[in-house]
Specification:
The chain has 354 residues and is an alpha+beta fold. The chain has two domains: 89 residues; 241 residues, BirA Bifunctional Protein, domain 2 (2-Layer Sandwich), CATH 3.30.930.10. Strands 1-5-6-10-9-8-7 form a seven-stranded mixed β-sheet, with helices on both faces. A hairpin with a 2-residue loop joins strand 3 and strand 4. The longest helix has 40 residues. The chain is elongated and about 120 Å long. It binds zinc ion. Zinc ion binds next to loops.
């Protein structure tokens, strides 16, 4: 039996020297340590021996087992090390290799302006709504003092879906909806207070050219309450224009006409580009002023049409074209640039507002 242990030791010595890979190592380990390994067979036969022999052979068998374990562990460490080194050599990082830009998305310039305006009004306490793009004739026209056959409807060529449904021509449709809603839900003699900004797409049957598009974006806001005055309107307009352009801009109001406001004004801002030095620039067309939006006090007739009492409830209203603001802010002179999805154009706004 002692011979068998020596034979086994020799066989192990020989086979372990042949190990070149971790797979070889596993094969050798299974051969010498598996259930049916020669060493196990020897250990099983120990019980047939005398106690003295059993102790001696047992000791030798254990020594061999410890030796084999040690050799294999050492070998495994060497092989792991070698494998790791080979991997590192293969995966060598070339720090001089040029980097790749990540294709990061960015908001469209119109959405950037839209979000900026929403933020300003949210901070002023307005409720921000989007509303519906398909609207009834009633809320798009009739409740805003534009009855059937009213000549002012000619100002807005409309996409009719049927005789009573239109693609909304302005975001003001939500003014009618909110006024009606607040009137329906207030008690007698109660004067409601509410400030809402409606933002989204509007549609007109315009021929597309450098400054017109059949679809564009608008924000339309109003505030109602017991003591809303023209002074409040001026303050709201001034706050908006200074936040949108810069703190130095002044506003100028010119009388105008809109069916849903009375009085109505056209709002100009002093030119933020040339500040009217040297008699103006391209943007203000040498006038020093830029036309920017329309506004006014909510027409008494509109209050009545929506169920509110115009004697107690007054309100201010305004409408802003997002494309016009974006064109001015970014110095874009063709409205179509916003709709052509030209990446070279859109990527110029990558860092705006960051
Ligand atoms: Zn100018």
């Amino acid at each position: 039996m002692k011979n068998k242990i020596q034979e086994l030791a020799l066989a192990f010595e020989h086979q372990s020297q042949e190990i070149k890979t971790l797979t070889d190592l596993e094969k050798v380990r299974l051969h010498f340590f598996g259930k049916e390994s020669p060493l196990n067979i020897i250990l099983k036969q120990l019980k047939t021996l005398t106690p003295e022999e059993r102790q001696k052979i047992g000791q030798e068998a254990n020594q061999l087992r410890n030796h084999m374990t040690e050799v294999l562990n050492k070998k495994r460490e060497e092989l792991n090390d070698q494998e790791w080194k080979e991997k590192l050599a293969k995966d060598k990082i070339d720090f001089s290799f040029p980097g790749f830009a990540l294709p990061l998305g960015k908001l469209h310039p119109l959405n950037l302006v839209m979000n900026e305006i929403k933020t300003i009004f949210r901070e002023l306490g307005f409720l921000i709504v989007e509303g519906t793009e398909i609207e009834t004739d009633e809320f798009n026209f009739q409740k805003l003092n534009l009855p059937l056959g009213h000549p002012a409807r000619d100002m807005q060529d409309t996409f009719y879906l049927d005789s009573e449904t239109v693609m909304r021509t302005h975001a003001t449709n939500m003014t009618a909806r909110y006024l009606t809603n607040v009137a329906d839900n207030s008690h007698d003699n109660e004067v409601p207070t509410l400030a809402v900004l409606s933002a989204g797409n509007v549609f007109r049957r315009d021929d597309d050219d450098a400054t017109h598009s059949h679809q564009f974006m608008q924000v339309d806001g109003f505030a109602i309450g017991p003591k809303i005055s023209f002074a409040n309107l001026k303050w709201v307009l001034q706050s908006l224009c200074q936040r949108l352009f810069d703190q130095e801009v002044k506003i100028r109001l010119r009388p105008s006409f809109f069916p849903f406001t009375e009085p109505s004004v056209e709002v100009d801002i002093s030119c933020f580009k040339c500040r009217n030095e040297n008699h103006g620039c391209e943007i203000c067309k040498q006038s020093g002023w830029i036309e920017i939006l329309g506004a006014g006090m909510i027409n008494e007739q509109v209050m009545s049409l929506n169920g509110l009492n115009p004697k107690t409830t007054t309100g201010l209203a305004f409408g802003v074209g997002i494309e016009r603001i974006a064109m001015l802010k970014f110095g874009v002179n063709n409205i179509r640039a916003f709709y052509e999805n030209n990446l070279k154009f859109l990527e110029q706004f990558r860092f705006y507002g960051m």
